[in-house]
Specification:
Layout lengths: L1 H23 L1 H27 L16 H8 L1 H32 L6 H14 L3 H11 L4 H8 L11 H14 L2 H12 L3 H9 L4 H12 L1 H16 L3 H7 L10 H10 L4 H29 L9
């Protein structure tokens, strides 16, 4: 009888303790599905790729050698080094142009003009559609030798160049597709511009400052945190670009549009050389990380934060 009494008194305590634990850790249980997904699909593959980068891991033959041979081959292979150069060129062309276009359009759309909401929607749509395969195929059709652009030029007696088969133009066309997708950065810039006080512009106008002076002396300094944010995010995205170069030119002509992401794909899913693909991916990760660190260090010189006034 005593044992039964003890059992009846212990059970509710355990149940109550479990309920208390769940109540105190409700937030953890909400993010648990994300944590499991992050662990399985992000963290474990991330660590595995680092290990594989030091092996000659083949998807079907397995691992037969361990060492630095992948990294040695990367730096001694002219094709791979050229791909890294093209990736840098692509990123350093598209990021400044995209941010400039986004800021310029956001500045215009910040004024109270008729139908401004329609224009905002129209400029944002390319960001939604631009990364899709269908838009890349359409872009290829527009700029091919007998495409829409050359057809329009022929009406004016102009012989259009071979946009996609000439190394001098191919990378420019790929960059243009990326710049065209400035809508997401534009929306962020527009939100920042809304936060700039109108009193500052009124005071500047009384002092005789024109629109351009107001833009460079008031607008740009006050939104530098947002410029910094867009710079870092767009830089990371540019170094990971894949759809456009793969679908439109497949890395040609003469590897003029072959980005590192294409080489990673070719080595991993065409040659099944997972070790080499992992090594190239890690080198790209290190490069992006270094550039991001440089951006964070340099922000002390050009990024203005309102909290800095009290320091």
């Amino acid at each position: 009888m005593a044992k039964q009494a003890n059992a009846t008194t212990v059970a509710p305590t355990k149940k109550k303790g479990f309920k208390k634990f769940v109540k105190e850790n409700t937030g953890f249980f909400f993010i648990l599905p994300w944590l499991i997904g992050f662990l399985i699909f992000k963290l474990i593959p991330f660590g595995s790729s680092l290990v594989y980068s030091f092996t000659d891991y083949h998807l079907f033959d397995g691992i037969t050698q361990v060492g630095l041979m992948n990294y040695t081959d990367i730096f001694s292979d002219n094709k791979i080094m050229k791909a890294f150069g093209v990736t840098f060129k692509y990123s350093f062309i598209t990021v400044p142009l995209k941010l400039t276009a986004a800021l310029f359009i956001a500045y215009i759309l910040n004024f109270k003009i008729k139908g401004v909401n329609l224009f905002r929607t129209a400029y944002y749509i390319p960001s939604i559609l631009g990364g899709s395969v269908a838009i890349a195929v359409l872009w290829k059709a527009v700029f091919r030798d007998e495409g829409l652009i050359n057809t329009l030029l022929s009406y004016f007696g102009i012989n259009g160049p071979n946009w996609l088969s000439d190394p001098s133009y191919a990378l420019f066309i790929i960059c243009l597709l990326r710049v065209w997708q400035f809508g997401s950065a534009m929306v962020i810039f527009l939100a920042a511009l809304k936060g700039v006080s109108g009193d500052l512009y009124e005071a500047a106008a009384i002092d005789g400052a024109g629109k351009w002076r107001q833009f460079f002396s008031i607008t740009v300094p006050l939104i530098t945190p947002v410029i910094f944010y867009n710079l870092v995010t767009q830089l990371c995205q540019a170094f990971q670009e894949f759809n456009g170069p793969y679908i439109i030119t497949k890395g040609g002509p003469r590897n003029s549009t072959t980005l590192v992401s294409l080489l990673v794909y070719n080595n991993a899913f065409k040659s099944y050389e997972m070790g080499m693909a992992s090594a190239m991916a890690w080198l790209m990760f290190i490069i992006v990380m270094v550039l991001t660190v440089i951006a964070f260090v340099s922000q002390k010189r050009w990024v203005y934060y309102a909290d800095d006034e009290g320091r």
